[in-house]
User: Fold this.
Amino acid sequence: MTTTPGHIVVVGAGLGGLRTIERLRSSGYEGRITLIGAEAHPPYDRPPLSKQVLDGTWEPERAILRGRPGLAELGVAARLGTPAVGLRGTTVALDGGDSVTGDAVVLATGAAARRLPGQPDDVATLRTMDDAVALRHRFGAARSVIIVGAGFIGAEVAWAARRRGMEVTVLEALPVPCARALGPEVGALAARLFTEAGVDFRCGARIAHLKDGRTVELVDGTVLSADVVLVGIGAVPDLAWLDGAVPRAADGLACDERGRVVGVPGVWAVGDVAAWWDPDAGAHRRGEHWTSAVDQATRAACDILDAQPPPATPPYVWSDQFGLKVQVLGRTETADEALPLHGSGLGGGEAKGTVVGYFAGGALTGVVSFGAPALIMRYRAFVASGADRATVLAQAEEWQQGSSPAQPATMEAQPK
Assistant:
């Protein structure tokens, strides 16, 4: 914008919305900020919900990023527990008939748990703090659980249940977990984590019918029962409230490289709801990751204030499951080749310490690691620069022999 807005309205009181506000204030913005949140809870962190909150090591309040006093310190007028129901220009209509008009609007309403057709209400999902608290309560009296979906949420819930001594069955429609992101070979290694933890893991399992919160019928006629049934098959962006007022990409709000919603002046979008233009792919992409929300919030806030944003960083996501930290750095779904860099997991050995490089046209686009958090970060700058296969493999061999990690010229531009 050429003129600094006097009033900025942020719709969505999650990570993306909060980080946008924090960046605005840290960049010197002194105007009005209104935060609109559908949930009554102050902004909270979602990753702990399926980890520390679910397993009981954290009380829910510990996941709060900023409570009401913290929002007041930022000079934010917080309207929590008040869903947005419409948008016209930069005026946000609220449930109950009220509205708020800003000079700039940031849409950060996130996503909701994806549901199966005809899914009964007593089938559990895990997306919100209330979901996590309810599932933890149900786990307290349960001895068995069926989990539909073997993605990160499914794996984390399965691990939490196994640590409680529960019988766990995981049903995955695809041949391996996270098939699109990991590919068949690395996905098979991810499948081993389930089976080695004592999970009844079934790939290629197609759901015919969810009878209720305890019974699942498969297409092949198999009927399974457990004390709890949970569906964890991803999320869909929260767009219904916009009622077609904002242009959409394939699965999110169509935004340019700065987060500006295409065709709607004065409106930006960040986080799970936003599909930012990716010049490398020549398409809009939506990233459902913690680090993507933070990076987009920073860049959108800088654009609103006409400030220079920091350099973009490679996408990054992690999951704590089965005693290991599984990490994905960069983009793996576009790769045409996956090569082991460290460890023996792909050859049938121990999963821990396995690091795999993903290459497209001979250039490194992503890295996946199983229980090797320090090692994967050595490749961050190589992913950012698209290092060639020979360079990456040579560096991996040096590190395997105990040499000190090299410091590529682009390392200073990457996140610490």
